[in-house]
C-alpha cells in the first residue's frame, strides 16, 4: 500500500529534523576528537590537562542547539589515566544556566552509572556508528523521559569514547508534534526496539512497546542511517 501524501511529508520532515540533530552530534564528536589529540600532545592516556576546552565545546553546543538539555563526552575507561574523570557532561538548568552534571561511578552504589554498558555507548563502541537511545526515564539525571544521540570518536586511531546530547521528550513535543498531527489518524515515531518516541494520540504513549503485525498498522522507515527510526500510522 502506497503511503498517503501526508505520511510521506511527515516522514520527510522528521527525517530532515533528526538528520540535523545527527549532524550536530557528529560535528561535536569530531571537535572533541580534534581537541583531545591537540591537548594530548603524544600522551597515550586522557588526563586532566587533555580535558581543557571540552567544557566550552559542550556549552557552545547547548547554546547553538536549544532543543538539547545536555551535551558532552563519555570516555572509554581504558583511555583515561587512573583516577581521571571519565566524562565531561553539561546540562541546561531550568534557570537557563549551564553546569556540569555529575554521576556516581562507584560499583555497587544504588545510583551507580555504568554508562559503558548502556546502548548509547556500547553500540557506538562495537559498531563505530552513531547511536540513538530512548525514550528512557533518566533517573540519574533529569528524572524524566529523554532521548540520547551519541557519536563515537577516536584518538590516535583508537576508540576513545562518545560525544552526544540529551533531549527531553517535553522539549521534543513542540518541535515534531505538529508534524505528527498533520497525519490523518493515529501515528507515532518509533525507535529500533518498537518503542514509541512520540505519538499524536492516546493510542501511542511515550515508551510503550508496539506489537508488530497489526493489519491496520503501517510502517515507513526514516532515512537516517544507523538510528533505526520509523513512522507508524493507521490509515
From TrEMBL:
It holds the Pfam family MCP-like_PDC_1. This is Cache domain-containing protein.
Amino acid at each position: 500500500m502506497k503511503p498517503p501524501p501526508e505520511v510521506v511529508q511527515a516522514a520527510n520532515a522528521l527525517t530532515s529534523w533528526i538528520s540535523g540533530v545527527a549532524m550536530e552530534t557528529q560535528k561535536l564528536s569530531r571537535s572533541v576528537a580534534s581537541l583531545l589529540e591537540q591537548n594530548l600532545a603524544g600522551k597515550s592516556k586522557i588526563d586532566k590537562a587533555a580535558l581543557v576546552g571540552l567544557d566550552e565545546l559542550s556549552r557552545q553546543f547547548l547554546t547553538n542547539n536549544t532543543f538539547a538539555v545536555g551535551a558532552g563526552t563519555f570516555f572509554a575507561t581504558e583511555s583515561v589515566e587512573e583516577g581521571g574523570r571519565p566524562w565531561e557532561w553539561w546540562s541546561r538548568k531550568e534557570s537557563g544556566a549551564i553546569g556540569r552534571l555529575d554521576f556516581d561511578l562507584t560499583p555497587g552504589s544504588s545510583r551507580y552509572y555504568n554508562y559503558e554498558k548502556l546502548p548509547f555507548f556500547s553500540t557506538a563502541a562495537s559498531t563505530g556508528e552513531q547511536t540513538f537511545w530512548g525514550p528512557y526515564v533518566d533517573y540519574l539525571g533529569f528524572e524524566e523521559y529523554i532521548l540520547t544521540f551519541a557519536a563515537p570518536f577516536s584518538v590516535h586511531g583508537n576508540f576513545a569514547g562518545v560525544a552526544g546530547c540529551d533531549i527531553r521528550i517535553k522539549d521534543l513535543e513542540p518541535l515534531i508534534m505538529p508534524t505528527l498531527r498533520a497525519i490523518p489518524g493515529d501515528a507515532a515515531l518509533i525507535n529500533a526496539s518498537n518503542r514509541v518516541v512520540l505519538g499524536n494520540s492516546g493510542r501511542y504513549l511515550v515508551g510503550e512497546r508496539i506489537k508488530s503485525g497489526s493489519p491496520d498498522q503501517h510502517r515507513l522507515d526514516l532515512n537516517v542511517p544507523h538510528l533505526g527510526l520509523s513512522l507508524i500510522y493507521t490509515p
